[in-house]
Amino acid sequence: xxxxxxxxxxxxxxxxxxxxxxxxxxxxxxxxxxxxxxxxxxxxxxxxxxxxxxxxxxxxxxxxxxxxxxxxxxxxxxxxxxxxxxxxxxxxxxxxxxxxxxxxxxxxxxxxxxxxxxxxxxxxxxxxxxxxxxxxxxxxxxxxxxxxxxxxxxxxxxxxxxxxxxxxxxxxxxxxxxxxxxxxxxxxxxxxxxxxxxxxxxxxxxxxxxxxxxxxxxxxxxxxxxxxxxxxxxxxxxxxxxxxxxxxxxxxxxxxxxxxxxxxxxxxxxxxxxxxxxxxxxxxxxxxxxxxxxxxxxxxxxxxxxxxxxxxxxxxxxxxxxxxxxxxxxxxxxxxxxxxxxxxxxxxxxxxxxxxxxxxxxxxxxxxxxxxxxxxxxxxxxxxxxxxxxxxxxxxxxxxxxxxxxxxxxxxxxxxxxxxxxxxxxxxxxxxxxxxxxxxxxxxx
Length: 445
What we know:
The protein is mainly α. The protein has one domain (about 1-445). The chain is built from 16 helices and four strands. A two-stranded antiparallel ribbon has the order 1-2. It has a two-stranded antiparallel sheet with strand order 3-4. The radius of gyration is 21 Å and the shape is globular. The chain starts with 6 loop residues before the first helix and ends with a helix.
């Protein structure tokens, strides 16, 4: 039964012969990316395990190389993306885990490089920004509706349905209960990962609504009260609360104000107020969390235990990461103090891919922030400026959130999609006014 993973591959290959790469990305990849779990996989003999997103990303990536790569223009971030992927392979290879390194390379090429290429080549130059965002948010909206069951019943509906096709695979993550209700994880695996996807959706819903890019009503459900933008936005926001994931909540508190700078008439003043708010709030949160997570204090709740666990991670694993050197330990890094879960992406990268991998990851993040800020400051239209501020807010929120959780499943792909997207979005949606084939040539030369 796990061979059903390959059904999207067959559909994708068939579609690529009949439609453009952009349309396949919009109509096939986006729904899979936002609505279906990617933690189940198909595995045969010596081949790498293939999950649902990789089943589409592999043929989609080949098609991008064949049909679109001629429009590629070099950017320094390209080097850092390639270096990051290389370290994910080399760390295991140099430690004698050749099979694991091959599997890591396949996964990184599919889930990091292909979304990066898609973000850089497929969306802005073809005038697809609004279509892609609307498709992502509508699919997230549908996933949210199904996910509400998890909050009340404490069981993931996606796992309940799909697990029967994978009888030999034991899904390691179960719905956690907090305050008497299930922490909603939806099709994303964990509540923290769901939270990252949902605050992306919340910020982009605000952008679409402000620019009146939604239809007034659902075309097939005009009887629903309220505007389509309000129904989708409130649903995503409510389910974000249902995740009960504090890391993404903190990311949301940072993401939304930064994004809203793009609405302000006096941008400089708004940016200054947001900066003061974030710095003051960040310092207060740091002091409070440091005291809350102090291991010398007696714990009074499971939440405080989790905070202490994350604090102790740094004490236990920073020396281990330093001992791993430039290339890291790979996936088989030493476990200390029974702490097998590394709930900090920066620390996880340092452990598994070494200081070189961490440098590459940080440079991808910094260059993405530069491109987003450049687009926010220099675009001619408010819609484009607001969009770049929205990307900036989302990316800052992601970077803050992954101090408290690993970057996996769909948020991992989202990170690289945004990194590629930031390079094209800084020039505005150029595909609106000039031919797609000429767009990237004009803006990069």
